[in-house]
Write the structure tokens for this entry.
Amino acid sequence: MAATTAWFFAAAPGAFAQAIERLGDFGDWSAFRFNENGNAACYMASQPTKAVGDYTSRGEIYSLVTHRPAEDRRDEASFIAGYEFKSKSEVTVSIGGTNWQFFTHKDGAWAPTEADDKKLVQAMIKGSTMVVKGTSARGTATTDTYSLRGFTKAYMTISKSCGL
């Protein structure tokens, strides 16, 4: 998951990026803690085990779950596609026959409600594989498959580290 750290350092502003603490690697997931505006925040990340689409190049691809307890935000699931999504498109996330529709903005996708986040995280805890389907701004359909091996341990680690 060294690439996860590299992505977060690149995306985070200056001193903020220096404060990221790697809490551990658990199966296919890694857990991190950082300070944001003086408050603890935690996240976990994974990259797909399989990424399919008719493209010649693509940036970094991630699934993340974030806790920001000082803002009363927990279990925020998001995806970074490695490309800009088609305008006003949705991403379909599937685990064990259940689907969720995520809204997109630029290269990210998020659940529309906190309730959807919580249901997805519970499915991730119980599941073994997650499939994420999206469409790029160029119209390229992609399918990313994530292993959920280690998800529960990483989730418990970020929850404990953030005092939840």
About this structure: The longest strand covers residues 29-36.
